Amino acid sequence: MNKSTKIILGIIVAVILFFIVRQFVIKPTSATTLNTKTDTVISPTIEDIKDEITLSGSIYADQVAVLKFQNSGKLNWVGVKVGDHVKKWQVLATLDSLELKKNLQTQFNDYESQLSTFTDTTESYKDKIITDTVKRILTRTQNSLDNDVIAYEIADMAIKESRLITPIEGIVIAIDSPLPGINITPATSTITVINPNSLYFRSEVDQNEVTKLIVDQKATINLDSFATEPIDTKLNYIAFTPVSGQSSTVYEIKFPLPVENQNLNYRLGMDGDVSILITDKLQVLTVPIEAINDDNGQSFVWVKNNDTDKIKKYIKTGIETDTKVEILDGINQNDQVVIKKR
Q: Is the pTM higher than 0.85?
């Protein structure tokens, strides 16, 4: 093959490669007819755009105390009713302590008797040689005295535990046994107190979206009961393990509820939505989401070319919401974007 033939073949190969690249890499912006009856022409807009996740949820309380007596007995006094406000460490109910006090006196008498026996035994062996037998006798006497001391302390604890005390301030929301004079067990007589100032908003997020979340992300809560009063807050808890019993893998997330609740306007179980801000941009170019088309994974829009036709322009997109898409490259604000009726 001579030199000129090689040159000709090289030119032919270059031309073929050029058309291949032109067809598959540099996609042509083919024109198509503009249908004025079905196509809508809009201009891209410069505006702020936000990428948010919106989830449903409800109000819960962080401080909930389910109080119950440690021992069974006769319910002597109930000092609260459902709906009452209570203070921290307030006594809510008591058991009849008469029997407990008599038991305490009995334990004290046993202690005094055993103390006397211990003293007599110690005195009788103080001048004798301490053999192994003597050691065992003294040890048994000491153990008996110790056991009587423990029994007395337990009886004293029972008297103290005959008072039901709340460790938190709040509202009484449930009383299992509101009437005194009946015999109760710890399982059959509970009083539940909730602190209305410890409310928070709880939601659940799917495993596909939980990876977008981090603690301290800004969020807005919109309660159904206060539709015109959005509450600004931040994400403050993301569970590491999924919620059990769900059909899909979801994770619990929590948000503080920074509201003044002295009048109890905000209550447990109130439903609403929370919008979590993932990212936002100010004054960027956007188009309606219905203007975006797909061509084998590459996004494009139709742009009006003249009064009779439109051309395809490939674009790069950024933040996407339910209604808008950010345009990074491919068109500008002066282009007239065509939305085809689908």
A: no
